[in-house]
Amino acid sequence: MAEAALSFERVSVSRDVETISRPSLSYWQDAWVRLKANTRALVSLYIVIALGVFTLAGPLVWQVDPSAQDLDQISVAPGTDRAAVIVPRYQPWSGATARVEGPALQAQEMTAPTVSVDIVGEPTTQAVRIQWDAVPGASGYRVYRNIADPAPDDHLGLPLADILTADRVSFEDRLDLKPRYYFYSVVALDRNSMPAPVYNTVATVPTRVITAEEAVARGLADTPDALRLGDTVHLALHPFGTDYLGRDMLARLMHGARVSLFIGIVAPFVYVLIGILYGSAAGFAGGRTDQILMRFADFVVALPFLLFMILFRILFGIEGGDSGILPMMIAMAILAWPAAARLVRGQILQIREEGYVSASRLLGAKTNYLVLRHMIPNTMGVILVTLTFAVPSAIFTEAFLSFIGMGVAPPTPSWGSMCNEGIKTMLTHPHELVFPAVFISITVLAFNLLGDGLRDALDARMRSRE
Amino acid sequence: MLRYTVKRLIQGVITVWFIATATFLAMHSIPGDPLTSDKAVSEEIRKNLEAKYGLDKPLGEQYVIYLANMLQGDFGISFSQENRSVNDIIREHFPVSATLGILAIAFAGLGGILFGALTALYRNRLPDIAIMFLVILGISVPSFVFAALGQLALVNLNDLFGTSVLPVAGWGTVLHMVAPSLVLGLGTMAFLTRLMRSSMLEIVNSDYVRTANSKGLPPTRIFLKHQLRNAILPVITVLGPSIAAITTGGFVVELVFAIPGLGRYFVEAVQQSDYTVIMGTTVFYGAFLVFMVIVVDLLYGLVDPRVRLE
Fold first, then answer.
1. Do B26 and A312 touch (CB under 8 A)?
2. β-pair partners for A83
3. Contact B104, B210 (CB under 8 A)
4. DSSP-derived secondary structure for A158-196
5. Which of A313, A322, A272 is nearest to A398 (CA)?
6. How many CA atoms does the CB half-sphere of A304 hold within 13 Å?
7. Distance of CA B289 to the CA centre of its chain
8. d(C-alpha A144, C-alpha A150), whole Å
9. Cα torsion through A334, A336, A338, A340, rounded to 10
10. In what order do the strands lie in the sheet with A170-173?
């Protein structure tokens, strides 16, 4: 057995078994990772950012004056046809006369609708001209206009004119015409101006027309010469429609967002800041001062919030031309700080007893250092969550006050006051209520979900058990 | 328990005094006074009126008179409605608001507890997802939008049946109360559902529920006796603030549904600067809310024996 060459080799020892696989994360980095994992919160964050862009950059892109009235398009829903045909200027119409002699008409005895009504010429939004056959013995006629078919219930609609001469058998309607269905009804009148129980109706849809001069005045064309008769122009675009005064909804929503979001974000900022100062003062002072301060906070909490918001609104009364934003913010700041103060005080009392604060103090840290290094960073998370949840409630408060007419003063749009105006025409023009309401709801929803996400990400103890 | 009750009542009285004082100071720092109006009043008449209402006295004296009147339950006379004292207005219209509020809170409480328990039992399944979606909607949509949508729904409903199934607005019969109280309770119900769900989920995993399960108690008994009773506690705690929310939420609902409640009169009084009505109703509402919070806290002690020991 040959002596085998025994060779010993040194076994390499790997020492990287216990290396930490990733760098340690700070509190905020960790929170951000958690937040990113939460789809709902992330989507909400994007919505909040989008709302911010809509509010700040929107008016730069969509440069329509929110208080300018478009009288051609009042309460127009989005997507309505805007085409208008160029026509010559209005030409007076002499109308038609006719008379059929007969025994004096007894209106109540008239049974057959002998009047037959016709449209004369092309019905346009400039004028609709109607003519009818004379009724024997009639001493006059009455013309009605309705936007629904009068046939089922004999609802003739708006009486447009009483024609008290027997030989006039035509009428020209120039009253606020829109491109939609109109039903003109004519009844004969007897000597006592009593209308006959029978009528005849003609239905028509006027075409929207505009003269070249009007088109230039509304900025639809540069010069009247550029337009020929019969050309089609499009009226000003309103992507979200117009309200009951013909104001552009999109521009109003953008400017309303400024008011609603400004109040919704700045007011909580102010009162949470007051709460932080007050709460930390109470928490640091401790003892009797703390008790007195917090008892006062309890009293302020007991004040019925919305009632006092209204009282303060009267107290700070707004002058003409004022928007009423500032009084609302001051009132909110006066009334809403105690919740944040309580929270911060509780946090400070808790953190004061923590081991790391004692350790830091043992190592010789001064009060200032303790506050800046330990107290504030450790309460930041809770404060941020409070702030996020305070935004929707502030937006609600603004909307509520504006809705009952105690918030932002009329010319200034806010989502709440737009809802207040829209609710009156809810049945006929729902878009005037729907848009501001949807904007309020989406904003509140986004901030609520973002708050949930932030709470889960920032505060392990308050994490909701989903 | 008695000591605690007395202590809370004393605190409550002080709070009401604070509210009354704050209201008094707020109303008296408003520029002008109730007699300043469009109608020019001669100097003589003005003096007489000021004397009648005590407005010529120094502020301190006015304050004492105000408190003394209030202690006797006299809130003064309305400035805008002839021959009506604030007491009459409160007596006449508060019951309407209270009925509406009680119905709303009952609806919100029952619905919240029921739906909350349901979502927790069916956690992450269809009923849970569907209800929680509605809850998020309920929390995010302002009350006046619900009121408007509610009216719209009623109009369509009545159209569908061809008769007036439920009245769209007004007050009087039980049918009038259905829609407004549902609308008023909706937001609070959403909030309570959420609260009930999380408290239920906590309890499902608790030791005593596991014990009850392992010793073979029937599930209904566990649900009713162990889970529900314990899960309701946090809901009762927030009932106080919920009553406050429903009271002020009533303003809008009363306005939209044309209900002659105190909230609507308050809003009208504010719009007409009817100072005595504003002051009276504010103090009245404040006292009412403070009292309700105390009642809820005492109720909590009755429901949860653990609190009583403290």
1. yes
2. A234
3. no
4. EEEEEE-STTB-EEEE-SS--SS-EEEEEEEE-TT-PBP
5. A313
6. 30
7. 7
8. 10
9. -130
10. A117-120, A128-132, A170-173
DSSP characters over A8-51: --PPPPP-GGG--SSPPPPHHHHHHHHHHH-HHHHHHHHHHHHH
Closest CA to B223 of B71, B109, B88, B114: B114
Contact by Cβ (8 Å): A221, A215 = yes
Is A447 within 8 Å of chain B by CB? Answer: no
Q: Tokens representing B47?
A: 């003096």
Q: Which of A155, A162, A160, A98 is nearest to A127 (CA)?
A: A160
Contact call for A400 and B136, based on CB within 8 A: no
Residues ≥6 apart with Cβ < 8 Å to A27: A377, A381
Residue of A184, A348, A360 whose CA lies nearest to A277: A348
Q: How far is CA A461 from CA A381, A382, A464, in A?
A: 12, 11, 9
Residue A321, pLDDT above cutoff 70: no
> Hey, which residues does A130 pair with through a beta bridge?
A119, A171
State the helix-helix crossing angle for B2-28 and B275-303, rounded to 10 degrees: 160
Strand partners, A173: A128
Contacts (Cβ under 8 Å, ≥6 apart) of B212: B221, B222, B226
Q: Which residue type does A277 have? A: L
| Residue B300 Cα, gap to closest chain A Cα (Å) | 19
ipTM given for this complex: 0.79
CB neighbour burial string for B75-104, b if at least 16 within 10 angstroms, e if fewer:
bbbbbbbeeebbbebbeebbebbeebbebb
DSSP structure string for B28-42: HTSSS-TT--SS---
Q: Give the pLDDT confidence score for residue A65 in this predicted structure.
A: 77
pLDDT in tens, B104-128: 999 998 999 888 888 888 888 888 8
Question: Model confidence over A13-29: pLDDT tens digits?
Answer: 666 666 666 677 777 77
Say if A302 is an interface residue toward chain B (CB within 8 Å).
Answer: yes
In single-letter form, the type of residue at position B238 comes to V
Tell me chain B's radius of gyration from C-alpha atoms.
24
* CA B310 – CA B300 distance, rounded (Å): 13
Judge contact between B188 and B112, C-beta under 8 A.
Answer: yes
Distances (CA, A) of A388 to A263, A381, A425, B26: 13, 11, 34, 30
Q: Note whether A179 and A81 are within 8 A (CB).
A: yes
- Residue A417 phi, psi dihedral angles, 5° rounding: -70, -30
At residue A465, the pLDDT reads: 43
User: Which residue of A40, A294, A296, A307 is the best one to mutate when testing the B interface, meaning the one whose CB has the most B CBs within 10 A?
Assistant: A307
Residue A444 contacts B, CB cutoff 8 Å: yes
Share of chain A above pLDDT 70, in %: 88
SS3 A247: strand
Closest CA to B76 of B287, B275, B263, B272: B275
Search chain B and give the residue with CA nearest A465.
B198
Closest CA to A160 of A173, A179, A176: A173
pLDDT digits (tens, 9 = 90+) for A236-282: 777 777 877 878 888 888 888 888 888 888 888 998 889 888 888 88
The DSSP element (H or E) to which A130 belongs, if any, is strand A128-132
Q: How many CB atoms lie within 10 A of CB B157?
A: 14
The amino acid occupying position A28 is W
Closest CA to A110 of A24, A41, A176, A197: A197
